[in-house]
Design brief:
2 copies of one chain form a homodimer.
Chain A (H helix, E strand, L loop, with lengths): L4 E6 L5 H12 L3 E2 L1 H11 L3 H7 L5 H10 L17 H15 L3 E4 L3 H4 L6 E7 L2 H12 L3 H23 L11 E4 H18 L2
Parallel strand pairs in A: 1-3, 1-4, 2-3, 4-5
């Protein structure tokens, strides 16, 4: 079997990262998430801080400034030319394609499902979860206070949706944009991982 | 294992009905499609008043027999056809709940995933597919001319989305509203059916 390239998109707190790690471990594949940001930073000339801070928080006003000025903002370290608002996404996409070209892997986030949509052997997955379960996970694993968890989740997911929409023209979380979508509250982390593995065998 | 109640929502032409039939056959469960639900709801003359007044008369077994035979029982012949959409949805929902109360089954369409959202042992599934594959299926199975297939699909899916949104307040086809969503172009009808069966075992 050719090793699959599995991309995972997820609601914040749904356990998508854990699922991705578990699937990667079972298949003996590399797992990429924040590591990917580092590589983007190195290869594109962005500062690590800029990418980490702005990866999924690129506001409209920032992008607008990019677009109208056509110049490198002073807070961007590095000095490579920035001529349009899609540069960061383009850099990320390039790295994602490079990583995928090296063989099977699991990539969480970064619109990788869209970037790799035409790659053979690619399985795109979306993970959702029930509100209460996501709040518990945010509290237990990310240390977010229960009272703040819901607002944090909404904000994070809104950012992800805006980012995805802006750069893909698709709707984040719409079932038809993924090969497989699963609710972690229904099946549990282990159950979802098993279903993803079974689906990967059917590619 | 308790027999699952599996509801299937689907894009027009995605093969969702075939998948539902195959899953039902494998599990030895009854299969109900939206046409059947409509016939039961329409011909039974389930006005809101009728439902309220005759609730005790409409036993589960009577309705089950009705659904299986597809014929109008004599005790319902006096009913009026339902023309009001809200009333029809109420009638459809009642039929769906009654059918599900009989035990394991597969139900396609009519917002059954929403109607049965709190029922234990319920697995809600959404099926999508790539445009080209859906066009082929529409042409081969429904006899729709290829030139007209895409417009027909768009129209049908728009109607489904509007209907779903109106009666559930949710977004049709949004991954988080289903336990499991699958792309039939990726896995094929047989592959999707196998994944659904595996997921049902994990309930």
């Amino acid at each position: 079997m050719i090793q699959p390239i599995i991309t995972i998109s997820r609601e914040f707190g749904s356990g998508g990262r854990q699922i991705g790690e578990q699937v990667a471990k079972t298949l003996g594949l590399p797992f990429y998430d924040s590591t990917l940001i580092d590589i983007v930073a190195q290869k594109s000339g962005y500062s690590l801080e800029f990418v980490a801070e702005n990866d999924q928080r690129i506001t409209k006003s920032m992008l607008f400034q990019f677009a109208i000025s056509g110049s490198v903002p002073p807070w961007l370290n590095g000095g490579k030319d920035i001529t349009n608002r899609d540069t960061l996404f383009t850099a990320q996409s390039k790295v994602i394609r490079e990583l995928a070209s090296q063989g099977g892997c699991v990539i969480v986030g970064r619109c990788a499902n869209y970037v790799l949509r035409d790659i053979p052997g690619h399985l795109s997955v979306f993970i959702s979860g029930k509100l209460n379960d996501k709040v518990k996970r945010c509290t237990a694993e990310y240390g977010i206070h229960p009272d703040a968890a819901e607002a944090e989740m909404i904000e994070r997911d809104r950012n992800r949706a805006n980012y995805y929409s802006r750069f893909t023209g698709e709707v984040w979380g719409e079932a038809k944009n993924y090969d497989l979508a699963l609710n972690s509250s229904k099946f549990g982390i282990e159950g979802v991982a098993q279903i993803v593995l079974m689906a990967a065998q059917k590619l």
